[in-house]
Design brief:
The radius of gyration is 29 Å and the shape is globular. The N and C termini lie far apart (62 Å). The protein has 558 residues and is an alpha/beta fold. The chain has 19 helices and 15 strands. α1 crosses α4, α5 (152-163) packs antiparallel against α9 (262-299) and α16 (495-504) packs across α19 (541-556).
């Protein structure tokens, strides 16, 4: 069995973290004080944030996401970290050789200079270093020491022996990560939880209403759930790393009473579980990152597309269609964020919940599909014949119950093979843009989710492409429409809005006035003034064409 290093007896050091994180992750360029310096934390350093002269980061390993070793700002970043007392700074390797003045500055300071390996990303670096730090500071707990890092199944079995009951390890969203062996008949709830790989939604809602989750996530101690006529007694404790909730450990009476010291054993197990859950979370992020990169390679037609297809199980000679779903949180700034499904703090956002639901819906109703998230979007690669009727509409319908959320989902043109996937993705993204522009330019009212396939929005998609091409030239010009738009913005007038309504109504003054909620004579007056003040003449075909294009471009800019 693979052995794991034990926590460093004198506290974590940079050398110990680098050893635990594994070879090839980081390259030590300079370490003026050596690598046997203490490490207090691993943090992301936002170079653009003004932290002031009193900023301190004693013993921190700082990951500087926006700076490479070959850029001029690297020396200033290193010196600022050195003044703050940081133990080390990690920069990404640039395309050029690192600057000589950077190496010289590192040699004169106290902060170690590390470079990220070119074939890794920041998510992997952060995950591995955090796992190493958690493992270094975790206290040894009798009965669970010596486990392979991240082996949650063995951890659950070991804890079950300590508490004398059945153990379930769950993430903050009540999804099962591991459970102990079934040595006695389990109660119905435990069986449902294990078979479904998550606590049933009705049970989560029940416990949330009773305030159980609020007690669990706000306490560092064991929370007891008394037995009733349906289910056995349960004990639960949150697993925390700093201010972050990593998950929880649940103990259930498994055909026999729990041990007298079950609560004490559970407290020790929660501390010992920290590095294992950090490791699990980091590995999950790494795997998700690799998958997303593979899907991007495939959908953008990059050189590694063939290899990515094999890794994802995508047949190179089979037709596919790309679906893009974009999630939006409709709450205003300052509104409270949503709790997670089980009320865990800081573990969820509306967009994340919606994208998770969309991915599950895709897996359930689109056999053989491949999904990947990127920002607020979900990309779904659908094999030919597996989509059925309008998959975007079905996916949107599946998330209508999520409050404060809007989804725009578009299906692109079918790709005959891998070489056409990029075109299918671009057409699906155009559909999403069409739906978003429809929503944002519609009459005032709540945004609503929408879906469409490319063939139904061909004209609007073509117009978007035309505007994309024309906009740079238009913005560099000046003319009658520019003057009218500038006047409206400065004085709050509605000449542009009136001209746009007239054009959209094909010159029907009454219909346009009704849309604007003004009298037709008022609209006629505005059109005359637009002609007299700016030269925007609705009787001239060229003027109408330029007004239509210019007002649409102006609408993009608010």
């Amino acid at each position: 069995m693979e052995s794991e290093p034990t926590p460093h007896p004198g506290g974590p050091t940079l050398a110990h973290l680098l050893a635990l994180a594994g070879p090839g992750l980081l390259d030590v360029v300079a370490a003026p004080l050596g690598t046997d310096v203490p490490v207090a934390d691993v943090a992301v350093h936002d170079v653009g944030e003004d932290r002031g002269d009193d900023w301190t980061a004693p013993g921190h390993v700082l990951l500087t996401l926006g700076t490479s070793a070959d850029c001029p700002e690297a020396v200033d970043v290193l010196r600022a970290a050195d003044r703050a007392g940081a133990g080390a700074v990690v920069l990404r390797t640039g395309p050029r050789r690192q600057r000589a003045d950077l190496v010289e500055a590192a040699a004169r300071g106290r902060t170690a200079l590390l470079l990220r390996a070119p074939d890794t990303d920041w998510t992997e670096v952060l995950g591995r270093l955090r796992t190493a730090l958690a493992h270094s500071v975790a206290p040894a707990a009798a009965g669970v020491e010596g486990l392979r890092l991240g082996d949650l199944a063995q951890l659950a079995n070991a804890v079950a022996g300590l508490v004398g009951g059945a153990i379930t390890i769950e993430d903050p969203r009540s999804r099962v990560l591991a459970y102990s062996r079934l040595e006695h008949p389990a109660d119905p709830l435990r069986m449902l939880t294990i078979l479904g790989q998550e606590v049933p939604r009705w049970r989560v809602a029940e416990l949330r209403e009773r305030g159980f989750f609020q007690a669990l996530w706000s306490s560092d101690d064991v929370v007891r759930l008394a037995a009733d006529d349906r289910y056995a007694e349960r004990l639960a404790i949150a697993v925390r790393h700093g201010g972050e909730v990593l998950g929880s450990i649940w103990a259930a009476a498994d055909g026999r009473p729990l041990a007298e010291d079950a609560a004490t054993a559970l407290r020790s197990a929660a501390r010992a579980a920290v590095p294992h859950l950090v490791h699990h979370e980091a590995r999950g992020r790494e795997e998700a990152g690799r998958r997303e990169r593979a899907v991007r390679d495939l959908l953008e037609g990059r050189p590694g597309a063939q290899e990515a297809a094999r890794g994802l199980g995508v047949a190179a000679d089979r037709p596919y269609t790309v679906l893009v779903a974009e999630a939006h949180d409709t709450r205003r700034p300052g509104d409270p964020g949503p709790p997670g499904p089980s009320g865990a703090p800081g573990t969820d956002t509306t967009e994340h919940r919606v994208l998770d639901m969309l991915a599950l819906q895709a897996a359930a109703c689109l056999p053989g599909c491949v999904t990947a998230r990127s920002g607020s979007r979900l990309y779904v690669l659908i094999p030919a014949g597996g989509a059925g009727a309008d998959p975007a509409r079905r996916m949107v319908a599946a998330v209508r119950s999520v409050p404060h959320s809007v989804v725009f989902a578009g299906v692109g043109q079918q790709a005959a093979d891998l070489s056409e996937l990029a075109a299918s993705r671009e057409s699906a993204e155009l559909v999403v843009r069409v739906l978003r522009e429809r929503a944002t330019t519609a009459p005032a009212g709540p945004l609503a989710s929408a879906s469409a396939v490319y063939r139904d929005v061909v004209s609007e998609a073509a117009l978007l492409r035309v505007l994309d091409s024309v906009e740079p030239t238009w913005q560099a010009m000046s003319g009658p429409v520019h003057a009218m738009v500038a006047h409206d913005r400065e004085h709050g007038s509605a000449y542009g809005e009136s001209v746009a309504a007239y054009l959209d109504a094909f010159g029907d003054t009454r219909a346009a006035a009704l849309r604007l909620n003004v009298h037709p004579n008022t609209l006629r007056y505005r059109l005359r003034r637009a002609r007299d003040l700016f030269g925007v003449d609705m009787g001239d075909p060229v003027s109408r064409l330029l007004a239509g294009l210019g007002l649409r471009i102006a609408r993009r800019g608010g």
